[in-house]
Specification:
Strands 2-1-5-6 form a four-stranded mixed sheet. A two-stranded antiparallel sheet has the order 3-4. The chain is built from nine helices and six strands; from the N terminus they run βαββααβαααααββα. By secondary structure, it is an alpha+beta fold.
């Protein structure tokens, strides 16, 4: 008998380790389908909430924020590319040259959850940024991506043209910040267990099975 679990996946669409972690988690859930059945809710987190609308050169941003050298950045890119390849995701590093503000993407994701298409939109936004190098701050890009997963384009355009869901997104961001989440991905299971970072599928599977064994039967 499988245990139903709720997963809050706290992440940003401009976080490369978040898509690695998500793909790994999905593989682990498939492998552990005899033990758990999960519903995933994507929760907002902005890596760069103060980012200007025009964004920032990715090399300059990483050097300023982390102090890494070009050689270190290249090593990190290769590690990410390999980890992505391992879980079936393609990073096109040469197409992504800027860091962008992602608040409007999170507003769309909040709306998409009520439409039953949040997961589809989340994956499409990761593909848009990390594989095609498109800006998650661009309303034109966001509208096209939303439409591609079956969301109503007129309603999506209305959301983007307004401040709708801004309060809800800010409230969720503040909740997770005050709960101690300072880096992503943060995977919270049944509001009790935390798994941090872009773990491998086997690590996720082991933790899922452990949690399923510990959780009481409903």
């Amino acid at each position: 008998m499988t245990k139903p679990i709720k997963i809050d996946f706290v992440s940003d669409v401009s976080c490369p380790w978040c898509i690695v972690g998500l793909k790994s988690l999905e593989q682990a859930l498939a492998n552990a389908s005899d033990a758990v059945s999960a519903t995933i809710h994507f929760q907002p987190f902005e890596l760069n909430p103060q980012m200007a609308p025009e964004g920032e050169d990715i090399g300059e941003h990483i050097t300023r924020k982390y102090g890494s050298t070009p050689e270190q950045r290249e090593q990190s890119r290769e590690m990410l590319r390999k980890r992505g390849e391992d879980v079936g995701f393609r990073f096109e590093m040469g197409k992504r040259d800027r860091i962008w503000n992602t608040f409007d993407a999170h507003r769309l994701l909040h709306w998409a959850e009520g439409e039953g298409l949040q997961s589809e939109l989340k994956h499409a936004l990761f593909d848009s940024y990390f594989t095609r190098g498109e800006s998650p701050a661009s309303h034109e890009v966001l509208l096209r991506v939303a439409t591609s997963v079956g969301l109503d384009p007129a309603r999506a355009a209305d959301v983007l043209a307004s401040n709708e869901f801004s309060g809800e997104v800010r409230e969720k961001e503040d909740f997770y910040k005050h709960a101690g989440i300072s880096s992503v991905p943060a995977i919270i299971i049944n509001e009790r267990y935390l798994i941090s970072g872009g773990q491998t599928p086997d690590v996720f599977e082991r933790e899922l099975r452990r949690i399923a064994a510990e959780e009481p039967t409903a």
